[in-house]
C-alpha cells in the first residue's frame, strides 16, 4: 500500500479536491513520505540524470562563469556562493574544483545551499567536502553579495493548471476516483473571476487549452532578484522550457528514466513541469534586476568554451574516455537532446555588464 496515496486521499475526503500545486507539494516535499526524502533519485541508478551528472565539464564551466562574475562584482572579500536544489552536490563540487584557478575567489566564497531534503544534505556534505550552510528557503539567506546558481530547480516547483472552457478558466484539481481507488483530474466547477492572473499570451489561448502558473517559482525568483538589487551580485538559472510564455500541458512524471502516470504511486516518481522563462525574466526585471537570455543551453555552453574544454580533456584520454567525452558533449549541446529544450537565463545587478556567455544574444 502506498502510504502517501492514502494520506492524499484522506485529505481529499476531508477537504475536497486539491490543486495540482498542493498535490505536487505533498508528493515531492512531504517531510517523511515525499519523493525527495529518498536517498538517491539522481544518476543512472535513480530516476533521471541532470547535466552535472552527465559530465564534469558542465559544472566546471559554471565554476569559471562564477569566478568571472565575482571579478566583475569587484572581487568582494566576502560573498555568498549559493546553489538552489543542489542534488548530490556534483555541480558545486565540479565548480569549486575549476575555481582553484582563482584561490582568492575560493577564500572569499561562503557556500550556502537551499535544500529541504535531509538525506540529500548528507550526500552534499560528503561530495562537496568543505564548510556549507544549508537553508530550507531562499528567504533565510544572509545579507551578502551573492552568486546564485539554480540548475533544474524551478521545474520541480509546484504548478497550478487551468483549462479554458466556454464560461472561462477552470482550475484542474486532483480528486479521488471512487471506481478505481486511485487519483484523477477534475475541473473546478467555478470559473476564475479574473483572468489577469495569466500573462497576456495565456489569456489569448483557444478553447480547451491548458494554462500553467508557477506562483512558487515566481516568488523564489523575485526574492533572488531583490537580494541581488539590495546586496549586489548575479544569478544563473538553467532549466527546461520555452523561451516565450505559451499554453500547454507540460506536467509529467519520470521514474527509472521513463515517463509514467503522475497521479499513480505518488512519491515514487519525479514530478516536473516546463519553466516559463519569459515570466521569470519579467519578474526579475520588475524587482530591478537586469536579465540576459533566455538562451538555449547548447549555445550558452559553447559560448563559455565547452568545445575547447572537451578537446583539452580528450587529449590525454583513453579511446573509451574520448568517446564518453564526445557523447557528453553531444548530449549537453545537441538540438535533439538537452541543447535546445534547456535554456539559460542570467540575472545581474544593474551595475554589472552582460553576463559571460550571453554577449551574442542579450534580451535585457
Brief summary of the model shown:
With 364 residues, the chain is an alpha/beta fold. It is built from 14 helices and 15 strands.
Can you give a write-up of this model?
With 364 residues, this protein is of the alpha/beta class. It has a single domain, classed as Rossmann fold (3-Layer(aba) Sandwich), CATH 3.40.50.12710. β7 and β8 form a beta hairpin. The protein is globular, with a radius of gyration of 21 Å.
Low-confidence stretches: none
Q: Mind describing the biggest β-sheet?
A: 7 strands, mixed
Portion in strands: 15-25%
Give the SSE string: HEHHHEHHEHEEEEEHEHEEEEHEHHHHE
User: Any idea what the radius of gyration is?
Assistant: 21 Å
Total domains, how many? 1
Structural class: alpha/beta
Tell me the CATH architecture: 3-Layer(aba) Sandwich
Distance between the termini: 51 Å
User: Looking at CATH, which topology would you report?
Assistant: Rossmann fold
Gross geometry: globular
The helix tally amounts to 14
Query: Strand sequence of the main sheet, in spatial order?
Result: 4-3-2-5-10-15-14
Mean pLDDT across the residues is 93
- Main CATH class: Alpha Beta
Instruction: Give the strand tally.
Output: 15
How much helix is in the residues? Answer: 25-40%
What are the SSEs and their pairings?
Layout: H1 3-15, E1 18-19, H2 20-29, H3 51-54, H4 56-72, E2 79-84, H5 90-98, H6 103-108, E3 109-114, H7 118-128, E4 133-135, E5 146-151, E6 160-165, E7 168-177, E8 182-191, H8 200-203, E9 210-213, H9 215-231, E10 233-240, E11 252-255, E12 258-260, E13 270-272, H10 277-286, E14 290-296, H11 297-304, H12 306-315, H13 319-333, H14 338-341, E15 342-348
Amino acid at each position: 500500500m502506498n502510504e502517501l496515496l492514502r494520506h492524499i486521499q484522506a485529505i481529499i475526503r476531508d477537504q475536497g479536491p486539491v490543486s495540482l500545486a498542493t498535490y505536487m507539494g505533498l508528493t515531492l516535499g512531504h517531510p517523511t513520505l515525499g519523493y525527495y526524502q529518498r536517498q538517491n533519485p539522481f544518476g543512472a541508478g535513480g530516476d533521471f540524470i541532470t547535466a552535472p551528472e552527465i559530465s564534469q565539464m558542465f559544472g566546471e564551466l559554471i565554476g569559471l562563469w562564477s569566478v568571472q562574475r565575482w571579478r566583475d562584482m569587484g572581487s568582494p572579500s566576502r560573498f555568498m556562493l549559493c546553489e538552489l536544489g543542489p542534488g548530490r552536490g556534483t555541480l558545486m563540487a565540479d565548480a569549486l574544483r575549476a575555481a582553484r584557478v582563482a584561490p582568492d575567489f575560493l577564500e572569499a566564497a561562503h557556500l550556502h545551499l537551499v535544500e529541504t531534503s535531509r538525506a540529500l544534505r548528507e550526500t552534499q556534505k560528503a561530495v562537496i567536502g568543505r564548510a556549507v550552510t544549508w537553508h530550507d528557503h531562499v528567504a533565510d539567506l544572509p545579507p551578502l553579495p551573492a552568486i546564485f546558481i539554480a540548475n533544474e530547480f524551478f521545474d520541480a516547483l509546484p504548478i497550478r493548471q487551468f483549462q479554458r472552457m466556454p464560461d472561462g478558466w477552470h482550475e484542474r484539481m486532483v480528486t479521488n476516483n471512487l471506481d478505481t481507488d486511485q487519483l484523477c483530474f477534475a475541473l473546478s466547477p467555478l470559473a476564475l473571476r479574473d483572468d489577469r492572473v495569466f500573462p497576456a499570451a495565456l489569456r489569448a489561448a483557444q478553447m480547451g487549452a491548458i494554462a500553467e502558473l508557477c506562483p512558487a517559482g515566481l516568488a523564489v525568483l523575485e526574492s533572488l532578484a531583490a537580494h541581488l538589487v539590495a546586496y549586489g551580485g548575479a544569478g544563473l538559472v538553467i532549466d527546461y522550457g520555452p523561451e516565450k510564455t505559451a499554453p500547454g500541458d507540460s506536467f509529467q512524471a519520470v521514474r527509472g528514466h521513463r515517463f509514467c502516470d503522475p497521479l499513480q504511486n505518488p512519491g515514487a516518481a519525479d514530478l516536473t513541469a516546463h519553466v516559463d522563462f519569459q515570466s521569470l525574466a519579467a519578474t526579475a526585471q520588475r524587482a530591478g534586476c537586469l536579465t540576459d537570455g533566455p538562451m538555449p543551453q547548447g549555445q550558452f555552453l559553447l559560448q563559455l568554451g565547452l568545445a575547447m574544454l572537451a578537446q583539452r580533456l580528450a587529449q590525454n584520454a583513453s579511446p573509451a574516455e574520448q568517446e564518453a567525452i564526445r557523447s557528453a558533449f553531444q548530449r549537453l549541446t545537441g538540438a535533439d537532446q538537452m541543447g535546445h529544450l534547456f535554456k539559460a537565463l542570467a540575472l545581474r545587478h544593474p551595475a554589472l555588464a552582460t553576463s559571460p556567455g550571453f554577449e551574442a544574444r542579450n534580451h535585457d
